[in-house]
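hiii so my PI (J.) wants the whole complex modelled not just the main chain, which honestly fair. so below is everything: two entries, each one labled with what it is. i double checked the lines twice but i was tired so who knows lol
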Amino acid sequence: MKYSYYPGCTLKNKAVDLDRYGRESAKALGFELEEIENWQCCGGVYPLGADEIASKLSSVRALVDARDKGQDVVTLCSACHHVLKRVNDDMKNVEDIRTRANNYMALDTPYEGETKVLHFLEVLRDEIGFSELKKKVTNPLKGKKIGAYYGCLLLRPGKVMAFDNPENPTIIEDFIRAIGAEPVIYPYRNECCGGYISLKEKEHAKNLCTDICQSAKGFGADMLITACPLCMYNLNKSGNDIPVYYFTELLAEALGLKEGSCDE
Amino acid sequence: MNNRKELIQEISGVNPYKCMKCGKCSATCPSFAEMDIKPHQFVSYVLNDDVETLANSKSLWKCLSCFACVERCPRDVKPGKLIDAVRQTVIRQKDADYLRPDDIPELAAEDVPQQLLVSAFRRYRR
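here's the output for the full assembly
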């Protein structure tokens, strides 16, 4: 199976581990991530204004490219996933945005939200299957107690993201079980890390991340995993002594693709 | 900046009249303590056509766009989208950017992810 892959700006630079181990794991699991040529930055956050068109076009271009190849789009970054999925929903369901974006794009075939947008975790759950993943694990991460940190971007708004139950998600916990480790469920797993606020208001983000880290530690987690480079950055900057890894790092480790262990 | 109610409704796509003032948005907001005007009050200010006060509030720059209020509103009012719409009316004016490229060297460490910069620019600047 071949997917159109949208890496996003940060995976080419500060989050190379999220990208590299994701690609290597995909190969080992029998699917290919074919990078979209000349993809443009999604902008990091979904433009909320109903009258915003130009800021959504980079996502539309990626979605059109995938449609023309007959492929689904896969992302690893939570933020790219959030933006692409919501813009795709606009193109499918919001007539005004669809009309104006298509007027601007002037495509041979207008785009109407045909492309399916999947997060890498959704591919693991819905296309590979966690039970199949479990069979391919050669190095189960026994004894590791891992807190899934969802944050906001993967889950909300639940109706559009349709990723998992936005208040009581299970996908990352199921992933953790599949790679042989033990998930730790804690109350702050879908609370916000502060996101972009950490640029101008570092103390505010630090307080939010401290609540998250303390909550996870209090429930017995030894480490957190995330799919978002900004969550990773904010959590690390908060100065709490709980390590944070990308979920793909642990996946690669469980598949025997990574030398050494994350927490050694 | 009076009589902006219609503009805010247009940009946000939100119908503030649906609000029943249950306060769930404020109860769930991770920035509640930092805000001078709380999310549920935001809705009332829009209804009272006092967008000017909102435009000058600290809250405008405290919202994280985490969609907790949007997800949990029992009336689908989406306070977070209202806050963003007011923010848009501010930053769409000339020289009203809340973040400028010249601010970056002082604010950002070298390890800052690109995602943080593009996200902040999109929320704070036209």
